[in-house]
Amino acid sequence: MNALTQNDFFARLDGTARAIETLLDGLLAPEPLPGEIERPARLLEAMRYAMLGGGKRLRPHLVVETARLFGAGDEGALRAGAAVECIHGYSLVHDDLPAMDDDALRRGKPTLHKAYDDATAILAGDALQTLAFDILADEATHPDPAIRVELTLALARSSGLGGMVGGQMLDLEAEGRFTPEGKPIPGDETSTLRLQAMKTGAILASSVQMGAILGRASEAERQALAVYGRALGQAFQIADDLLDAEGEAATVGKATGKDAARGKSTLVSLLGASNAKARLSGLVDEAEGALSVFGQRGDVLRQTARFVAERRS
Amino acid sequence: MNALTQNDFFARLDGTARAIETLLDGLLAPEPLPGEIERPARLLEAMRYAMLGGGKRLRPHLVVETARLFGAGDEGALRAGAAVECIHGYSLVHDDLPAMDDDALRRGKPTLHKAYDDATAILAGDALQTLAFDILADEATHPDPAIRVELTLALARSSGLGGMVGGQMLDLEAEGRFTPEGKPIPGDETSTLRLQAMKTGAILASSVQMGAILGRASEAERQALAVYGRALGQAFQIADDLLDAEGEAATVGKATGKDAARGKSTLVSLLGASNAKARLSGLVDEAEGALSVFGQRGDVLRQTARFVAERRS
C-alpha cells in the first residue's frame, strides 16, 4: 500500500458518506419491517429530514475504517455506522428542542422542531434511537449474534445514562451558572473534560470500538484503538469549541459564540485559544501514535485525526 | 397443578412486581457499568422517579408467565420484563410532556417534567430507552446471544417507528380534529384499531413474544401466543378507554374524561360503552381460547386476560 494522499483520504470519507446516505434512505423506507405494523408518513418524513441530506458522517467513517484495518467487510460496518449515526442524529434533534439548547439552525437548515413541531421532534428522536438498536440486532449486520450483542452493548453504554445522554444532562446543569454580579462561574478542567468525554467523546470512541468488534481485534489492538478513540474524541471537542469561539455561523452551519453566551466552560475558555490549540496538537500526536501497532495500515485513521483537528465546519 | 385461585394469581402478579422493583433498583444504581463513564446524579434520580415505586408491572408479568409456560428460568425473563418496563416508562415520560399530552398527574403523583423539568424528562426518557436495550444485550439476560438479539429485535420492532412511537404520532395527529361547528371528527374503527394496536398493543404483544423467545417456543406455540397477545392488547385498550370514559380520577390515578375532551376516537366513543363491553368480553374469550394448546398450564395467562379486562385502575 502506497502512502495515503489527502485526495485518497477525502475520496474514502466521501465514499462512506454516500454509502451511509443510501443505506439510511433504505432503512427509512415506507414499507414496515417484519414485526412492525405501519410506518406513519409524518413520523417517517421527520426522521428522514433529520437523517438524510449529507453531513460528514464522521462516526460511520470511524466504524468503517477501523473495521477495514482487520479486513472486515464493509456491509456490516456501514450498518453499524448507520446505527451510530441514528444515535448521533436523535441526540441532535432532542438537544435542539426549546426545552434544551433551543436551536433554530442545524447544518444550515431549520432544526427539526422548527420544520415540524416539538412533539414530532421528540417522537422522531425516540424512533431514531430505537432504529439504531434495530439495525445492530438485525442479522444483516453480522451473521454471528455474539458480535451483534457486543455492538449493541458498546453503543448502549456509550450513548445512555453513563455516556452521551448523561453528558447532555451535565452540560445543562453546568450552563447558566452565574455569580450574583452576572459573571459565569467556570467549571474546572476535570469536570469539563469529563462532561465532554461523555457528551461527545463516548460515541466517537465507541464508533472505533465497534469497528474493532467487527474486526475481532485482539485485546492489545482494542486497547490501542481505545487510546486512539479517546484522544480523537477530545481533539474533536476542542476543535468544536474553537469553531464556536472563532468561527462564522455561515461557514460552520449553525449558530456560533453560544458557549460564551451561555457561560459554558470549554478548554478554550479555561486555557485560552492558544493553549487549547497546543493541547489539540498534542492529542492528534497521541491519536496517531496509538496506531503504531498497525503500521501503514493505520494511515486513514491517522489522517482522520488530523482532519478532525483541522476541520472548519 | 391444581386450578389457579384468584389469590394464587394475585400472589404471582405481586411477586413479579416486587422482583421487578428490586431489579430496576439495582439497574438504576449510581455505580457505572463497564463502558460507562459516570452516572450523573440528577439524571439517575429522575430515572428512578419514573421507574420505581410500584405499578402493576403487567408487561414484565406477561414476559415472566409466558416464559414459565416453557420452564424457562425467571432470571432472564425478569430482566427482559425490566427492559420492556423501561420502554413503557420512557414512553409515559415523553407522552406526558407539555409538547405532547401535557399531563400533570401519573399514578397519583406529579409527572416527571412537573417534578423536575422538561429537559430532564426528555433526557431521562432517552436514557431509559437506551437502558432497555442495554439490559437485553447483556449476558445476564441469557447465555445464548442468539436469544438476546431476538429479544432486542422483538422489542425494537414493537416500540419504534412501526409500533409504539408510530402509534403516539398517529394519536397526536388524530387528536383535535373538529368540524367548523366544533364537533370532533371521529376516526373510523379500522384506523382507531390500528392506532391502538401500535400505541399500546404492540409492546403488550411483544412482552408475550419475548417470553416465547426465552422459552424457545415452537412455531405453533408462537402463533398461538401471538393471537393471545393481540387479543390481550385490544382488551387492555378497551378497558383503558372505559376507565377514561367512566372512571374517577381518584381511583384511576390519572386524569379521566380526556379522550372526549380531546375529541379522540376510541371503541367506546365509536360503538358506545355497552357494545365496547361486549367486544371486550369477546376478546377475553379469544385470548383464553388461544391458550388451549397449553392446557391447564395456560391458566395464569388466562386469568391475566380476565384481570386486564376487569381492572379498575
From TrEMBL, chains A, B:
Stored InterPro entries: Isoprenoid_synthase_dom_sf, Polyprenyl_synt, Polyprenyl_synt_CS, Prenyl_diphosphate_synthase
NCBIfam families membership: FPPsyn
Organism: Enterovirga aerilata
Keywords attached to this entry: Isoprene biosynthesis, Magnesium, Metal-binding, Transferase
Gene Ontology cellular component annotations, sorted alphabetically: cytoplasm
GO biological process, one term: terpenoid biosynthetic process
One term of GO molecular function: prenyltransferase activity
Cofactor: Mg(2+)
Family recorded in the similarity comment: Belongs to the FPP/GGPP synthase family.
Keyword Methyltransferase tagged: no
UniProt-recorded name of the protein: Probable farnesyl diphosphate synthase
Gene3D superfamilies for this protein: Farnesyl Diphosphate Synthase
Top-level taxonomic group: Bacteria
